[in-house]
From TrEMBL:
It comes from the Bacteria. The keyword Membrane applies. It comes from Shinella lacus. This is DUF2339 domain-containing protein. The chain crosses the membrane at residues 142-159, 171-191, 206-228, 240-262, 282-301, 308-327, 333-354, 375-398, 410-428, 435-456, 476-499, 511-533, 539-556, 568-588, 594-612, 619-637, 652-672, 684-702, 722-740, 752-770, 782-802, 814-834, 854-873, 880-900, 906-926. Keywords: Membrane, Transmembrane, Transmembrane helix.
Amino acid sequence: MLEILSLVAIGLALYTLNASRNSARKIGDEVMRLKREVEALKAGGVVLPAAEGTGEAASVDVAEAAREAAADEPAETPFAGPWAGPKPVTTDDVEKGRAIFGGVPAEAAAASDTAEEAVAAQSVAAPVKPKESFESRIGARWAVWVGGIALALGGIFMVKYSIEAGLLSPAVRLSLAAVFGLVLVAIGEFVRRRTQPLIANAFQNAMIPGVLTAAGAITLFAVTYVSYEFYGYVGPVAAFVLLAAVSFATIGLSLLHGQALAGLGLLASMLTPALVSTDEPSAWSLFGFLSVAWLATFAASRIRSWQVVPALANGGMALWALLYLAGAETVDVVPVLAALLVLVLGHGLIWPGAIAFDDTSAPAGATPADPFDKLLAPPAVAVSLTGALAVVFPALVLASRVPTITHADYGFVILVMALAVLGALRGWAIYPAIFSAIGAVVGVTTMVALPGGALIDTFGGLAPPTLEGTTPIPVLGTAPVNLLLVLAVAYAAVGLAAVRLRIAGSLHFAALWSLLAPAVPFAILAVSFLHFGNLSFDAKHGLLAVLLGLVFFAAAETFSRKRTEEGGLFIPQWTLASGGFAFLVLALHALTDGLVTTLGVAALGTAAVFATRVRAWPVLPWLMAGAAAVVVGRIAWEPTIVGAANLSKTPVFNQLLAGYGIPAALLALSAFELRRWPGERIRNLLQALASLFLLLTAAILVRHAMNGGVLDSSVPTLGEQATYTLLVIGASAIMMSLDLKSPSPVFRYGSMAVGVLSVLSIASAHFIGLNPYFTGELLGKWPFVDLLFVGYLLPGIAYGGLAWYARGRRPMPYVIMLALAGVALAFAWVTLSVRRYWHGEGIADWKGFLQPETYTYSVVWLLLGVALLVVGSKFDSKSIRLASAGLVLIAVVKVFLIDMANLEGILRALSFIGLGAVLIGIGLFYQKILSGKSGTSEKAELNVEA
């Protein structure tokens, strides 16, 4: 069966070869006929349209043949040919036409016009590639592919048959197979030379010469491997050389036969080291061969502008590097490093070479593309992307194996910096730039997070601590702190150089580098400081951070001066200045500690605000907002600022006043300094932050004082919470006053937001969470000046005052909310005071209710309702009058539902008599008010805007 299949395959291949040659001859004849027709048209003769059935390829190449013929025409020839556009017809043209075509019948002239229109229509449609027919796919493409496979299988089956039959010796069989492979290569070259270029253009992925050459290359590769592996006719060195020669020859022939053959040669070269093994493997031999194979593939791809094959070559190089680093018993970093550096140099010097683009201008009349789309899709994007990944993945492996591989840290740094340099020097290298940054940050984090690296005392040289009964972790060397610092400095230098190189031609690429230049070194320096530095005082990291901060501020100044156009967002100024500020903040953390660090960060932000007097950079005020964010982060990490053990217990005048109050004052000063700044958002933000820090300062001082100088996580008491509530009410009133004096949306909406939050706070804390009735907290020995006075009456009066102050200045719903909050607190104070009168300091719910106590609630609630009615009438406030009606309604419900059931005797009677008298009095009061206002309009309510 196999023999029959072999014969069928060979027959099919011969038939395909013969058919393709006949087709090529027919197509060539048709092209020559079309050229003659074009020559006739140029000479002014009339040629009828081509007959039907001339073939698809002929119509496709009409325009190309016409252009070749037109190129031979002298420049002074007045006839432009049928491809020229129409021009206006003048009287002279008409007279000339009559003279020329005077003896020509009208039918001939019409035929000439028809012929010209037909040829012109064909020339217009020529660039549009027609849809390939099913016949073309079967006959011109699949037949070629199947034929090539058949030839390869035929050779294999012939060798197999000779082996099974024992007809020939192994040496003869291998020799014949080699000759067969060489013959296939020769036939492929012969067919390529005889085939017209038209076939190459129409069937690029089904070229018969390329298929024949590929079959021959596979045959030669198989013969060499079998000679080495199964029969031992050649040794490892000779087999390696022969396989490499076949691979490189295939890559060289791909320049003539196409990208598919290059891919085959690349695959063969990548498989060669895996197929040939020796007792003493050499990493230099392996990666030296891979480098040469990669260079050959890359050079061929550069000549023919291929992208698939070089991308696969990058992947193959990366795969070999990863396999070696992960699987070799003894790893030599230098050969891997050399091969990957060859890859980086090849990308920079061979492909795509000097390609760069300018995103500052667009051709006239063209629709400008999105610069970011252009930046992220550079020429040969697949090549640059795979090349960057091929370098960054081995670099990360080296970073993860720093404790176990010698010089792995140096290899990691060199690879990252090589990618960064490539990204800086080439305008298309967006992905090398991005992945160099990612690789640097991820690699450094991985390196310092390893147990062997993280447990090393860099400065003292101490051994890592161990637990009892455990084996200490072996340490193979010191942590590469100095190398990390060198990496940070080198990356910053390359980043700034990249901004300098790209700012004139590609503003968006320069903007990207202006972000990477400070961000990557900052991340490296911060990780190194947190893992290996002395958090109290570290001169090495601190001084380097100061140096880099000043360098980036100087770079921002330099690039801002060189900027020619005005207006718009100049990203390098923002990123470089922000990076310089971030380095100075890091330096403060390295050189100072505790309160000094917090105040230093706030002072640094204030200095940036005052620097607007010298340089009107939009970024400078926002640096103060960044400083405030850092201070908030430090407070969240350590609320005591200096540590619980070092915090003074003196009320008010302690480290908290400075740690919270001075940043609040500096924020307020910065907002005042920016009063004439054109950017309103940052001024409003600083005002809001100043208000927030002021409230935070007051709250933390209160908590410190009321807890005996100790800040802990315990739940605050009602007195403490009442103090916070009074502070918030006062803050709302202060912001309202500031808004009236200098209108600001921050103060306007901030005052209302603070008021709403305070109301929510009393609803949850004063009435439920910290209510002495539920918590059992003692009220104090003094009957009136007690916890109820601080927790309910004072906040109620404060809310009433705030509602009165907001009259006509804030929206009606907000004022109503404040007034009702004050009434609710007053109601709670009266009710709980009655319970204190009957039960003493402890008013917990478990004590139950007495009959006199129940009666007293009814009397007090009615009196409170009447008092609110009087107040509402005096201030003409409908909302307060409605609140009084609500209290009276509560008293009515209580009398009818509770007093009737729980009271007995005289108390029950007095309850109903008092209720009736109060209700009648209220009715008379309302009748008097309404009759007095008859025919007149009511005055403006307390809660109505002026």
